[in-house]
Amino acid sequence: MIPEAELIKREIVVRNMALTDEVRLTRKSLVRWIALSLGLISPKETRTIVIDVLDVLLKEFAQGKKPTTKEIYEKVQRKRKEPVSEKTVYYHLQRFAKIGLIQREKGQYFISKDNGRLRESVKKVYMKEIEEAFGNIERALDSLEK
Length: 146
Hints:
Blueprint: H1 21-24, H2 27-37, H3 49-62, H4 69-79, H5 86-99, E1 103-105, E2 108-110, H6 118-145
Antiparallel strand pairs: 1-2
Helix pairs in contact: 2-3, 3-4, 4-5
């Protein structure tokens, strides 16, 4: 292992993907596209629970709701043919919160305190990470030039 690997604070993946007419045909394919483009799933992902959780969140936020873990779990459960663990749903919610895509307060999830637009909140989270990473890269390059 490269010694500097332990210095990784966070890793973000943003994929530049074509947004084709076929992708836009169904909500399901759009949600999968968003999950893949934001690095929430890998290209070879076979588990779809994270997509179902994301879909429920997007629907709830679009309606201006602030759902609880239980409400999200129940809606995910209704979407799926096979049973899903509440712990699994909670795990994905925690993952989204750790990334900064959602926040939780008083048991309710929401996209942002200061801005209710999902696209702006997502962009803000990813751009903050990118700017911090490139700030460090620039300082390292400056050090090499000296």
